[in-house]
């Protein structure tokens, strides 16, 4: 585990010097508590690069309060064992003071108005904090490829926009969402749910399937079908359900035709779940 920026730079330089000329470097940024979804990201990184760097940093800027930050699950021993099994070349696991020596970010990347929609509506601080640290990691590692999961589509969209507008020389690669047998995306939250809550959570991907099945009608039909799939389940507290244009990530117009994304977020058993699906509106 590399703890300091100085050591990261040294070890990266050594890895690049030892590798054949033209070897690419991939970055997978995480906040630890690794699961099968992260495993897939790392495997995708290995398919795209000869040197794989994984960062494990519980970013305090992504949390509303210090208590929430402290409560985030940390499994460093299990994470280290998994990363070793996967053959990760470098693991950067700094403490908060290493990346945020002032205890906060005095210089920030802004996600703009889009950062206040969907996930940002319930967590208005979230995307500015995420992008700020993501920019730090991209600057420190200087990867050729950075890999992100499709489950967090808004994050991927905003990172792509940041990379484009701040001229980072990096290719963004998306890995498909890893799902459990009942269709729920794999996350650290799943194991905390009891049987009834787990069954309720499984309705969220069913709602997205209903939206996709009704996309041959219109946008309103997509949303209505998704809402119907959740109806009567009191354990689900729906936070948002939107159909957006993948090119702008803004809600589609009423007469939209063509590719779109259905986004959903809800609380089940005291935990938030987000998911999405590609649909084609006719």
In short:
39% of the residues lie in helices and 20% in strands.
Core attributes:
282 residues, alpha/beta, 5-stranded parallel β-sheet, 3-stranded antiparallel β-sheet, 8 strands, 39% helix
Describe this structure in words.
This protein is of the alpha/beta class and 282 residues long. It contains eleven helices and eight strands. The chain has helices at residues 5-18, 36-48, 66-71, 76-85, 96-99, 119-122, 126-141, 153-165, 195-201, 203-213, 219-230; strands at residues 25-30, 51-56, 90-92, 145-149, 171-175, 236-244, 258-268, 271-281. The chain has a five-stranded parallel sheet with strand order 3-2-1-4-5, sandwiched between helices. Strands 6-7-8 form a three-stranded antiparallel sheet.
- Number of distinct helices: 11
With strands numbered from the N-terminus, the spatial order across the biggest sheet is 3-2-1-4-5
The best one-word shape is globular
Helix content bin: 25-40%
């Amino acid at each position: 585990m590399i703890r300091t920026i100085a050591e990261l730079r040294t070890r990266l330089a050594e890895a690049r010097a030892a590798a054949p000329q033209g070897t690419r470097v991939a970055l997978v940024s995480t906040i630890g508590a690794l699961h099968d979804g992260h495993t897939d990201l790392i495997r995708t990184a290995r398919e795209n690069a000869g040197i794989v760097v994984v960062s494990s940093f519980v970013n305090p800027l992504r949390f509303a309060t210090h208590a929430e930050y402290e409560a985030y699950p940390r499994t460093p021993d299990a994470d280290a064992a998994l990363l070793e099994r996967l053959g990760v070349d470098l693991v950067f696991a700094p403490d908060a003071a290493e990346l945020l020596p002032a205890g906060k970010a005095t210089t920030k990347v802004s996600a703009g108005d889009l950062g206040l929609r969907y996930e940002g509506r319930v967590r208005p601080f979230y995307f500015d904090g995420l992008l700020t640290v993501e920019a730090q990691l991209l600057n420190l590692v200087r990867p050729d490829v950075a890999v992100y999961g499709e489950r967090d589509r808004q994050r991927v969209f905003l990172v792509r926009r940041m990379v484009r507008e701040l001229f980072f020389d990096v290719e963004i690669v998306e890995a498909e969402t890893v799902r459990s047998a009942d269709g729920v995306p794999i996350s650290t939250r799943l194991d905390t749910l009891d049987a009834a809550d787990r069954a309720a959570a499984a309705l969220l991907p069913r709602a997205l399937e209903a939206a996709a099945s009704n996309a041959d009608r219109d946008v309103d039909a997509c949303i209505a079908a998704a809402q119907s799939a959740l109806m009567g389940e009191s354990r689900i507290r729906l936070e948002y359900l939107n159909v957006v244009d993948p090119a702008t990530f803004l809600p589609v117009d009423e007469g939209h035709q063509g590719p779109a994304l259905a986004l959903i977020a809800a609380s089940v058993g005291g935990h938030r779940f987000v998911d999405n699906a590609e649909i084609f509106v006719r």
